[in-house]
Give the backbone structure.
Amino acid sequence: MSGLKHPLISRAIFPVAGKGTRFLPATKATPKEMMPIVDKPLIQYAVEEAVGAGVSELIFVTSSTKRAIEDHFDSNYELESFLKKQNKHELLALVQNVLPQGASCTYVRQSESLGLGHAVLCARTQIANEPFALLLADDLIHHEAESCLQQMVSAYEATGCSIIAVQEISVSESEKYGMVAVEPQANSVFRITSIVEKPKPQDAPSNLAVVGRYILTPKVMAHLVRVQQDKRGEIQLTDAISSLLQDEPVYALKFKGVRYDCGNKLGYLQAIVSYALAHTEVGSEFENYLQGSGRVSKDFSRLQKK
């Protein structure tokens, strides 16, 4: 691993152009990324994680149906004026800090739903030949000390190479994920030897699955341009990373934290319960309700402590 200084990770891409069909009819008029976990939408958690890791330029790859995301991170002078007149200063501060200070937003349209790789290509001009982070808001990752992306930035600073967040899964679920094979290593950072998109369990190279956090060097863009569309007509980022492996090292990071897959209903509900139990305003009362109602297991009260 290199000890040299590398370009800072100041830009992050957020692909938010998906249709959110798993959550219909809730997502018919509301973007999936705007669905709340207690009192904050999914996309805000991802943005706060990025800014907390040093990102200052937020690039949203969006579509014509996602104006609510733009509105969420824009100023709302009418609402702010109302809150000020009502002396609701705490709420005013919450609204004014939805977009963390020092961060800027750019919105790029993805005209066709051609996969994650295509979404990244849509932001090619904004990346300007610099390394960048890529965050999928569906993956909500709870952390105690450092966020997942902060851990990845540290790994990038040590290697100067692309970093992909991974977690161990049951191989029986491999068809839901990109899967990696890695070289043996003593710490939590592993050099990737191969990566494949959604293999059958018998073909999975390991039990390490890719989750929605990446730091990628700009060279990945040249590989994305050459990637052929798959059987569904999509450009897979996994294929570009597989090609990138031939030119430069790519590392996997087994991050510390709890990941909630909010791209499906069960993961979304688990996240709501966990974050509600940890919420400073309602956590204690909510825990009492769960324990006293007899409707749910007390195991939920332990979920948020993992």
Notes: The chain has twelve helices and 13 strands. Residues 23 and 265 are 7 Å apart (CA to CA).
